[in-house]
C-alpha cells in the first residue's frame, strides 16, 4: 500500500533488464554512443518531427536547464503558484538560469489565462526596474493531479506567443497526462505551441531518465554547454538511453501510465462510493486527493499504508472537517489493485 | 581494444545485477531509504570514522559541489594546471561555487608544494582586490596517470592547514590510486588531512555512482541544500546506493581497480619492451601515456583500437618525434589481457 | 511641480559644496582615507553603538548586498509583496545572493505578522525541496508611503528572532520614516531587533550615498569581499564619505526629511480639503497617493507638473472612478511650498 | 609626493564645479535626463560614429558588465595574465558573467598574439568539457604602464575576428594611452576592431565616471537589464553625465592625460639620469616602474612620499639587487612638477 509518491516505486522489469543487457561492452562516452543516437532519433518519431534531445538525470535538472536555455538577464518565468518549479526545487530553476519565477494563480492547479495576461502586463518591455517577461512554464499533469485540456494549453500558448515568450512544459508526469487526454505526444506539445518539454521517465518506471526536448532545434544551441556546466552530461549516458530505449519500445511507457491511471481510477471510484471519505477535487491522472477521517488514516498507516498529508488550500478551509485529514495518494506502474482495495478497506472500517 | 577512456566500459556484472535486483519493491525517495542509510554507514566502515556522505551522479557534480560547500565570496580554489576541475568541467566548479580556480604548476601532474605556497601568498588576507584563498584540491590519481604518494599528500595538506584552507581530493580514480599505493582509504585521505573527497565509482565499474564524503560532518551542513539546488538529489537515490552496495561488497571495488591497474602494467611492460614505442612518462594507475610511431597508431586504429591523442606538453616539445604521436591509453575493470596484447602487437608490426 | 520621485531632485547645496571642497588633495583610495574612517565613526555615534559600515552607491546595491551577506544555498528572504526589493530591482537581490525572495501580503504596504508566520512555516527546517527561510526584510518607509510603527517593527522582529532569521531594513527613505515617527535611529533599528540596515542618503539630498550598516559587526565579516566582487568598492570612496559627512552634520539629514514630510503634509491637507480629489490611503512620509479627476491630472501636466500614475490595487477596484486616476506624488528636500500650492490649484480649477 | 595611484587624486576643479552647478533643479532619473542624453550624444562625436553608451560608477563594473554582455554558458574570456580583470577585481568579471577568464602571457604586459592563438585553439568549438572561447579583452594602457601600439591592437583584433570573438578594451587609463599614442579615439578603438570599451574617467580627474561604449549598438541590447540587475543604474545618473560633460568639454580629458603623462616623463627622465635608480622597464603612460635603493625608498617615505612596492616579475629575479626595491609611481592630473622633483631628490641623496 505505497501511495506516498510514484517515485517510491522501483524500475519496471523491462527497463531494469535492458540496463543489465546494455551493461557489457564498450561504447563512446558523453552521449555520443550509437545507442544515444538511436534513442534520440526515436524521440523524433514519437513527436513526429525533428527535435533536439538532451538526456539529464533528474526532473529538477530537466526543468532548470530548459528554463535556463531561454533566459536573459532580468528575466521572469511565469508559472502556477503551486508548480513544482517554484515550490519543490529549492530554487534550482532560478539558480541555473540566474533569473526569477513569478507565480500566477489559477483553479485546479492550472494557470488562469486572464491572470497570466495581467501578470505579464506588469512587466512592460524596457521597464528595467521590474525585470522582463522571458518564459512561461506549465506542468502537465499538474501538481494536484489535474490535466490541462488541449484547449487549455492552447489558451496559455496563445498568450505566450502574443508576448513572444517561449512555452515550456514540465512533463514529469507527461505520460499520465497524455493517456488521460487520449492525445498524441505531438498534439499535446508542439501542435499546441509548446517549445520545450521536460519529458519525464523516472516517475513512470525508469530509475533516472529525463529528457529535455526542443521542438525548435535552433533554441537548443546553447544547451550542450548549459548541460555540461550543470554537471548533467553523463559519461555513461548510454544507460539513460537504454532506459528510454526500453521505455519507449512497443509503447511500454503508455501502458505503464495507463496502468497507473487505472489504479487511480479504481481509488477514485472506491472513495467516491465510500460514505466516510470523499474526493477533495476531481483529478484524472495518477494522483488522488481525498478527505478521509483521521481514524481511517490511522488505520491505514497501522496497516502499513504510506501516503502524505496535504496542506488544506488556503481558499477552502471548509474542505476538511475537524476529524478529517486531506491526503494525497499517488499510484504508479507498480501499484497493484489489491493495494488499492486494501487501502479502501481501511476507509470502510 | 578500447583504451579511449575507462568510462567507455559498461557496468560490472555484479553491479548491474544488483540494480536489477533492487528494481522491485517500494522505498522511500530522495535518499531516505533503508538501503541509502545502510550504504552510507558502509562508507564509515571503509573510512574507519564518522563521515557524511552525499550521493551524486557525475564526477563533475561531486567536485563542483564539494568545492561549493567550502566557498566564500571572492574565493579561490588552488588546483594543478592540468586538473580535471579546471580543464574538463566547462566551468562547473566555478559556476556552482560562484568562485574561481587558480592553477598551480607542478611536475608529473601534481601540485608543486613550493609553487602552491607562493601562489597562496599572492592572496594575502583582506586584500579584497585579489580575492582570497579558500580551498585546495588535488586529483588522485592525476589526470596524467600519476599518483601522489602519501608523503606528497602530506606536503600539500600541511600547506593547506597552515593557511587554514580545506583540502579536497578529486577521487574520480580513487580506487586505482589506492591500490597503486597499497594504502587504506583512511590512510590516503583524512589521515593525511583531506577534508572532503569526491569518491568515484563510475569509472571503476558503476554506471553512475559518485559520493561526496565529508570527514568532518560539521563542514557538510550546507550540503543538503547545495545538492538539491544543484539538481543532484535523486528521487530514486536507492539505485545509486545499490551500485555502491555491490561495488563495496567484498572489496569488489579494489579488485576491479587492481585489474585495471594490472592491465595498465601489462601495457606499460609491453611498451617498455618495444623498440618502436616508449612511455612518455612513468605512471602507476590505469592510464598509460606513450609515444608511438604514427604508422603504428594508424595500424591500431585500422584494427579497431580506440584511444585519444594527447597534447604534447609545452615544456617538452622534444618528447615526440616527427613521425610519432603521443597517445593516452586507459584501461578499466573490463579490459582484457588479449586486448592489451592485441594493441601491443600493432606496435610491433 | 516635480513630484515624480524624490530622486528627481539634485543634491542639497551643503552636500554639493562639501564635494567641491573635498575635491582637492590626495587621499588613500578604496575606503581607507581618514575621511572614510571619520564618517564611519559618525555612524556609530548616530546609532549609539558599534556598527560596521559599508558605503555603496545605489539603493539596489545596499539592499542586494545586505541580503547577500546573510544568504545560504536554497535561501528565501521574506518581503512584502510590494517591496522595492521584489518589484523594482530587476532581480538584483536574487542575483547577488543567489537566493530567492518570497512575498508576504499585508495592508498598508506592511508585512502582516500572521501572514509572515504562516509563510515561514511553509519552509520547515531540512525540507530541502522547498528551500529554507534565511532572512526577513522590511521597507521603512514603505513603497506606498506608510511607516511601520515601533510596535509593528517589534512584531516582525519577534517573528524573525523566533525563527532565527536576520532582519534587514530597507531604509531608502529612512530619514523620512524616522522623523515621521519622532524616533531615534537606534530606537527604529537595533533596539527593535533590526540586524542590517540599508541607510539611504540619495533620495534625501545626496547624489549617490548609501550605507550598509551592520549592528552586529560579526555578521559583516564577508562583506568586504561581497562588496568588491559586486563592483561597489569605490576608489574615490571619500566622495561618498564627504556626502555623508555633510548630510549627517548638524542633523542636516533630519531637517531635510522634515522639510520633505512637511511638504507632503501640505499636499495631504490640500487634497483632504479639496472637493474634487481625495487621498487614496493615509501616509505619513514624503509620499502622497491621491485619486484625482483625470481632467485635473491633465491640467497639472499641462502646467508642467511631473508625477506618475499608480496601479489601482487589485483588492480595491472601487477606489478609482471612471473619470478619475490614481497618482503618486513624492516630495523631497527640494520641494517648495509654492509648487505644492501650484499643484493643488490644478485640482481646484 | 603622492604616487600611490592616480585614484588618490581628487576631482579636477572643472569637474567638481560642474557637479555643484548641476546640483540644483529637477531632472528625470535613471539616465533619462536631457543631460544624460546630451552627453551620450557627445560620445558619438568623440568616437565619430553611432555608439551605445552606458554610464556606470566603477571600473570593475565597466569591465564586468562589458564582458557579461557577450557571455554564453561555459564561456572563456582571454586576458593578459597581469590584467586588472583577472588580478584586481575579486572575481567580479566571472561573477557578473557567470563565465571564466583565461590568462595569456606576453611581454610588457601585453597579450602575445601567438600565445593567444594557441590558447584559443585549446577550446575547439563544441568541445563542451573545456568550455568555449567567447571574448578577448586587452588593457589600454596596461597594468604595467605600457601601451599597445595601433599595430599591436590590430594583431590581437585580427585573431579575435578570425575566431569570431568580440574584443573588449579596458580603458581605465584610456586617455593616458590615447595621448601617448597620439591617436584619435576612433583610431584606437573601433577602427582597430574593438567592439566594446570601458571608457574610464575616474582615474583621470572625475570622481566616479565610467562609461561602457558599444561600437555595435546591436551588441548592447541586453545591457539595460544587465546594468540594472548589477545595481549600476543610478537614479541621479545626471551627476555621472555632468562629470563626463565637463571632462569631455574642450578636450579637458586629453589635457589632463597629457599632464599626467608629462609628469611621468619627468619622473622617467629623472630616474634615467639618476645613478642610484633605474627604470625597471620602459613605459609611456602615467605609470613608472623603478628599481631604487631601499635607503632611498626609506628617505622618500620619511618625507611623506606615497607609493607601492611592486612584486618582482618571476621571470626576472635578477632585476632587483639585494639592497634595492621595485616600486610603482603613478602620476595624475593633479601631480605637480615639484612633487616629482621632490621625489627625485630623495633618490639623489
In words, what does this structure look like?
Four copies of one chain form a homotetramer. With 349 residues, chain A is an alpha/beta fold. The first copy, chain A, folds into two domains: 13-252, Type I PLP-dependent aspartate aminotransferase-like (Major domain) (Aspartate Aminotransferase, domain 2, 3-Layer(aba) Sandwich), CATH 3.40.640.10; 253-348, Aspartate Aminotransferase, domain 1, CATH 3.90.1150.10. Chain A is 40% helix and 16% strand. Chain A is built from 14 helices and eleven strands. Chain A has helices at residues 13-21, 34-47, 59-68, 84-87, 92-97, 113-121, 150-162, 174-181, 185-188, 223-229, 238-248, 252-273, 294-302, 337-348, and strands at residues 52-56, 75-80, 100-104, 132-139, 167-171, 196-200, 210-214, 278-279, 287-293, 308-309, 324-330. In chain A, the strands form two sheets. In chain A, strands 1-7-6-5-4-2-3 form a seven-stranded mixed sheet, sandwiched between helices. In chain A, β8 and β9 form a beta hairpin. In chain A, α1 packs across α11 (238-248), α2 packs parallel to α11 (238-248) and α12 runs parallel beside α14. Chains in contact: A-B, A-C, A-D, B-C, B-D, C-D. The interface between A and C is medium-sized, with 17 and 17 residues.
Amino acid at each position: 500500500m505505497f501511495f506516498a509518491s510514484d517515485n517510491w516505486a522501483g524500475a519496471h522489469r523491462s527497463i531494469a533488464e535492458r540496463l543489465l543487457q546494455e551493461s557489457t561492452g564498450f561504447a563512446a562516452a558523453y552521449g555520443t554512443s550509437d545507442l544515444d543516437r538511436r534513442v534520440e532519433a526515436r524521440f523524433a518519431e514519437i513527436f513526429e518531427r525533428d527535435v533536439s534531445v538532451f538526456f539529464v538525470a533528474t526532473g529538477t535538472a530537466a526543468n532548470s536547464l530548459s528554463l535556463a536555455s531561454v533566459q536573459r538577464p532580468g528575466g521572469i518565468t511565469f508559472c502556477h503558484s503551486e508548480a513544482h518549479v517554484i515550490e519543490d526545487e529549492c530554487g534550482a530553476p532560478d539558480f541555473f538560469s540566474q533569473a526569477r519565477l513569478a507565480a500566477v494563480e489559477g483553479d485546479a492547479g492550472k494557470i488562469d489565462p486572464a491572470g497570466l495576461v495581467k501578470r505579464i502586463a506588469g512587466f512592460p518591455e524596457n521597464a528595467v526596474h521590474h525585470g522582463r517577461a522571458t518564459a512561461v512554464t506549465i506542468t502537465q499533469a499538474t501538481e494536484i493531479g489535474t490535466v490541462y485540456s488541449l484547449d487549455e494549453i492552447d489558451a496559455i500558448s496563445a498568450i505566450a506567443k502574443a508576448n513572444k515568450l517561449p512555452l515550456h512544459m514540465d512533463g514529469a508526469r507527461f505520460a499520465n497526462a497524455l493517456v488521460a487526454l487520449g492525445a498524441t505526444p505531438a498534439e499535446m506539445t508542439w501542435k499546441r505551441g509548446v517549445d520545450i518539454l521536460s519529458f519525464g521517465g523516472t516517475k513512470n518506471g525508469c530509475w533516472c531518465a529525463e529528457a529535455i526536448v526542443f521542438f525548435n532545434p535552433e533554441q537548443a544551441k546553447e544547451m550542450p554547454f548549459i548541460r555540461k556546466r550543470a554537471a548533467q552530461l553523463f559519461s555513461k549516458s548510454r544507460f539513460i538511453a537504454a532506459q528510454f530505449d526500453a521505455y519507449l519500445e512497443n509503447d511500454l511507457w503508455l501502458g505503464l501510465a495507463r496502468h497507473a491511471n487505472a489504479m487511480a481510477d479504481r481509488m477514485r471510484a472506491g472513495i467516491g462510493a465510500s460514505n466516510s471519505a470523499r474526493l477533495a477535487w476531481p483529478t484524472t491522472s495518477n494522483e488522488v486527493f481525498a478527505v478521509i477521517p483521521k481514524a481511517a488514516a490511522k488505520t491505514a498507516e497501522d496497516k502499513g499504508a504510506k501516503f502524505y498529508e496535504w496542506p488544506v488550500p488556503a481558499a477552502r478551509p471548509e474542505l476538511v472537517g475537524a476529524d478529517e485529514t486531506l491526503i494525497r495518494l499517488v499510484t504508479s506502474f507498480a501499484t497493484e489493485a489489491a493495494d488499492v482495495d486494501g487501502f479502501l478497506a481501511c476507509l470502510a472500517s
